[in-house]
Prior knowledge:
By secondary structure, the protein is of the alpha+beta class. It has helices at residues 49-62, 78-87, 105-110, 118-123, 132-135, 160-165, 175-185, 200-209, 229-242, 258-262, 276-283, 323-334, 336-346, 363-372, 384-387, 393-402, 407-421; strands at 19-21, 36-43, 66-73, 97-101, 139-140, 143-144, 147-153, 155-159, 215-218, 221-224, 269-272, 291-294, 307-316, 375-376.
Amino acid sequence: MRSRRAVLSLGSLVVVTGTLISACGALPGGEQEGRRAVTVWLMRNSASDAFLKRFTKDFEAEHADIRLDIRIQDWTGIGEKVTGALKSAHSDDTPDVIEVGNTQVPQYVDEGGLIDLSLESARDLGMEDWLPGLAEPGIDKSRQYGIPWYAANRVVIYNTDLFEQAGVEDPPRTRAEWLDITRRLDTGGRQGIYLAGQDWYTLSGFIWDEGGDLARESSSTWTGTLDSPAALRAMDFYQQLQALGDGPKDADEEHPSQADRFAKGDVGQIISVPGAAQQILKKNPSLKGKLGYFPIPGKTAARAGSVFTGGSDLVVAGNTDDRDGAVAVVKALAGAKWNTELARTMNYVPNKTTLADAVTDEPGVAAMAVGAAHGKATPASPLWATVEAADNPIKAYMSRVLSGADPATEAKKASREITRRLDESGE
Length: 427
């Protein structure tokens, strides 16, 4: 899964030349049959053309005074485009509704460019059932700005043949069972699991399960917390699991591709989004029918493990000249009818735990939905993207520990660096 984030840079407005989808066929910003246009920016591949056409037709039939002007954007450079659009005077080309990565919301809130949707969230949108990993990044000072739209998260993809050969009948439900099964798989030239040393998204889930976090805020100041007892316990578990395979200690899950490595047929498990199965089968079609999925196990069988939730929120631009029309679009896209159709169409997790039954027919997505109920997002600092830069200190910390360095010492170093990068004073 490509995380719904980018290293966001500030700058002037960049002209958007995305694809236009409009049921009425009118020019962007124009009016037809007395309708007013509501401009919506959605990201490429978030929804299929067929879905958007169905949604547009239905929405315009129910809102006779609105014409949807849906414009498809690319993730590359989207931060600068959105920032510029939110700072500009509203025109026919600026958006009223924008799809943004769930972890991008804090930056746009910090820049003062979004409308507070707390009332609509509580009154109309059933916020009490939202996935926490989508909802929490959209909150600032108890106000809801980002409305959850869809989610995706990691699960365990496993080779059913290797599980059968190891005498494993059922996937594990606890961390202890997971370690035991993985040890049984890690024999005879086979890897129990291929886990790269710098898969910090997976480590984050273990940290959250232990009650810790990557960073915490107090009095508007963020402090790195990889050196907390909870985070150190998580790193210890990660170290035990990572040792049951030959994943590189100094690389992440995409360098080299863990899906390609799994496709060789001698790896019992990887931790990835279910969509990686397509890449695996493309590399090795003989694995068709031999891939299984289960949620990342938790500390007890009563609760699946925590996971990093990727996905998108919907926001309303503060400079919109049609707040009511924009909110109507958000309500429709995030409402049960169209949210469940989107999930089924695109194999996403719906935005509410109560809608999880909509994806039970797809084993990989069903496993995602179980984990998503305990999902989280990265710390809601507007500067978090600086932590995820090319020299991510969490990755460096993990590699040093897996290579034999003292965990507590290295965690303190990494925590200090996270604190420095999240310092809004720039000191």
